[in-house]
């Protein structure tokens, strides 16, 4: 038995013995049971006031058991109890502030800090001592996120969860593991379930992503969640930077000898625990995997992603239909001619000519360049969430790929576009500073060149692309009537 197993067994023993002492001679009413909505108040007070180790662990486990068994109303009752009743004690906080104002110094500052801490943070700390406590608390926070907007006190409780989780899931506690086809089946099932970017359709597809010698998968684990990954990244070893996910995931592709690979492609990053939303793991994961790959295969000198652009189609639709003052921050895109060309996006049932397809993709590429380099949220951030993640980690916007994802989801969210973000360890800090201090996205010259408008193509018979699209529309309507 390993160290973690010994400690877990020891905690279970303490919990069980303490629970028997705690529950001896007490019926359901004394334990606060009430159908699906337990009365948590007496149990929380007992948890905070108790001093014995065994009884404290037992009380914590009892509360978590009750919360897990409760219906949604009971779960909500518990969270509202923490949010409304177990904040800071204002009388103690006022007294600490008065003491600081009368005698400013390190000791009075510390007293203010202690008094300002919500008591519910101590409740959560004590719950975390129970066997399986961390797993239950992550689930508790997942549920909290679903009801966070239902009461004005709940966002403060969520901040307490984030504050504690940021410490408990600190990078120093996380363990990087390589997942392969020999990994136990229960963990492989979780990989299938958690894949959030490119769905895994069963065991055969999972094998294609894990078994070949030019494929890798790495995951972060927490010592208390040994069978449940926090986040994982899928890696393809390639001879060059790929432009389409179909090539990476092709069913009948020929694997390459890893010794011939010069490029490591991070093509899917999946966060596994909804209850840990907002707790950053991905930046540490990518950087550590880069170090692992450089150590194992020093010939690999290029580290890139092949990433989706989940918000692009929605942004483009808003830009196309905006006018005047509603056009937003960047009125250079789309031009009237580009609006005409983009009409083709409204007619996905057409078989577009090669000329029209090329024109549409050219406009989409220019639009994507504006989306990444010019468009910003109301608070000045890059719009796309995936871009914020990689650019914030110091990556460079290397290439935008037309028809990089021809799946239904890829066409729906980005009209098929995908992007490569390039990680160079020696440039990460400078790229990050450029974004944070100047709001500048570091991009390859080819991407910057896309900002310039291209002259609209003309039909040999006269008229612009918009006229061509309108003629095709009329022909389709006539054909429909004739049928």
Q: How would you sum up this structure, described in words?
A:
- It is a single chain.
- Strands 1-2-3-4-5-7-6 form a 7-stranded mixed β-sheet, sandwiched between helices.
- It is α+β, with helices and mostly antiparallel strands and 483 residues long.
- Helix 13 (282-296) links the parallel strand 4 (263-271) and strand 5.
- The model is unreliable at 1-8, 13-33, 324-329 and 476-483 (pLDDT under 50).
- The chain folds into 3 domains: 3-168, Up-down Bundle (Butyryl-CoA Dehydrogenase, subunit A, domain 3), CATH 1.20.140.90; 172-305, 3-Layer(aba) Sandwich (Aminopeptidase), CATH 3.40.630.180; 312-449, Aminopeptidase, CATH 3.40.630.
- The protein contains 21 helices and 7 strands.
Q: What is this entry, summarized?
A:
It is built from 21 helices and seven strands. With 483 residues, it is α+β, with helices and mostly antiparallel strands.
Write the layout of secondary structure elements.
Blueprint: H1 3-23, H2 41-49, H3 53-69, H4 72-85, H5 90-102, H6 106-116, H7 119-127, H8 133-147, H9 154-168, E1 175-178, H10 185-194, H11 203-210, E2 215-221, E3 231-238, H12 245-248, E4 263-271, H13 282-296, E5 302-305, H14 312-321, H15 336-341, H16 354-373, H17 385-392, E6 396-401, H18 408-414, E7 418-423, H19 428-438, H20 445-449, H21 465-482
Parallel strand pairs: 4-5
Antiparallel strand pairs: 1-2, 2-3, 3-4, 5-7, 6-7
Helix pairs in contact: 1-3, 2-3, 5-6, 7-9
Stretches with pLDDT under 50, minimum 5 residues: 1-8, 13-33, 324-329, 476-483
The H-level CATH homologous superfamily of the largest domain, spelled out, is Malonyl-CoA decarboxylase, oligemerization domain
Query: Order of strands in the sheet with the most strands?
Result: 1-2-3-4-5-7-6
Largest sheet: 7 strands, mixed
Report the principal-axis shape: globular
What count of structural domains? 3
């Amino acid at each position: 038995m390993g160290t973690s197993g010994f400690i877990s067994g020891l905690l279970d023993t303490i919990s069980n013995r303490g629970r028997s002492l705690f529950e001896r001679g007490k019926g359901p009413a004394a334990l606060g049971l009430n159908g699906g909505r337990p009365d948590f108040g007496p149990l929380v007070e007992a948890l905070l006031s108790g001093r014995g180790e065994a009884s404290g662990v037992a009380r914590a486990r009892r509360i978590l058991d009750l919360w897990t068994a409760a219906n949604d109303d009971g779960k909500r009752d518990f969270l509202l109890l923490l949010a409304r009743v177990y904040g800071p004690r204002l009388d103690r906080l006022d007294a600490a502030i008065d003491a600081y104002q009368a005698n400013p110094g390190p000791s009075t500052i510390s007293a203010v800090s202690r008094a300002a801490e919500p008591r519910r943070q101590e409740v959560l700390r004590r719950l975390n001592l129970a066997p399986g406590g961390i797993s239950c608390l992550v689930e508790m926070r997942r549920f909290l996120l679903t009801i966070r907007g239902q009461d004005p006190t709940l966002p403060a409780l969520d901040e307490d969860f984030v504050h504690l989780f940021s410490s408990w899931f600190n990078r120093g506690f996380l363990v990087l593991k390589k997942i392969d086809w020999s990994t136990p089946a229960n963990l492989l099932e979780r990989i299938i379930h958690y894949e959030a970017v490119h769905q895994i359709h069963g065991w055969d597809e999972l094998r294609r992503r894990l078994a070949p010698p030019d494929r890798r998968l790495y995951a972060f684990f927490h010592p208390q969640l040994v069978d449940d990954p926090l986040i994982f990244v899928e890696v393809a070893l390639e001879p060059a930077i790929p432009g389409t996910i179909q090539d990476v995931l092709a069913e009948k592709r020929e694997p390459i000898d890893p010794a011939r690979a010069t490029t490591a492609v991070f093509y899917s990053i999946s966060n596994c625990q909804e209850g840990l939303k907002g707790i950053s793991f991905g930046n540490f994961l990518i950087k550590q995997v880069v170090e692992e790959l450089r150590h194992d295969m020093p010939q690999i000198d290029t580290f890139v992603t092949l990433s989706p652009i989940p918000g692009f189609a929605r942004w483009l639709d808003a830009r196309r239909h905006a006018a005047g003052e509603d056009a937003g921050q960047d009125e250079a895109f789309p031009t009237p001619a580009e609006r005409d060309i983009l009409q083709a996006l409204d007619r996905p049932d057409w078989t577009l000519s090669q000329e029209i397809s090329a024109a549409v993709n050219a406009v989409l590429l220019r639009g994507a360049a504006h989306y990444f380099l010019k468009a910003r949220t109301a608070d000045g951030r890059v719009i796309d969430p995936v871009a914020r993640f990689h650019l914030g980690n110091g990556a460079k916007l290397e290439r935008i790929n037309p028809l990089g994802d021809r799946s239904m989801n890829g066409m729906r969210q980005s009209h098929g576009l995908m992007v490569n973000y390039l990680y160079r360890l020696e440039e990460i800090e400078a790229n990050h500073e450029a974004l944070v201090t100047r709001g500048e996205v570091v991009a390859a010259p080819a991407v910057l060149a896309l900002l310039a408008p291209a002259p609209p193509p003309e039909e040999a018979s006269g008229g612009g692309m918009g006229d061509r699209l309108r003629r095709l529309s009329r022909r389709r309507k006539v054909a429909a009537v004739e049928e």
